[in-house]
Amino acid sequence: MVACVFFTSGLNHLKNPTERAKGIGASPGFTIVLGSGEVLGSLGVTLGILIQLAAIGLILIMLGAIQKKIFVWKTGFWARGAPAGTTI
Asked: How far apart are CA 8 and CA 14, in angstroms?
């Protein structure tokens, strides 16, 4: 189930990186790297290929998302007070 969530999120990053970059407040290049990491990590977990490295990569992606949510966007767990136009 976790792999499905990361896979679809990664595909959304890769389909339209410029739009997603605006939504998350990052550059389009970083959004492509992020989307590629999500897709490859989810495939690694699903297929059992380098599963520990894939899981560590997904953990690092989530730690970065948590850091952005708490310290940059200053939103709570349920996104109360999210800045207008922010895609969470």
From this structure: 10
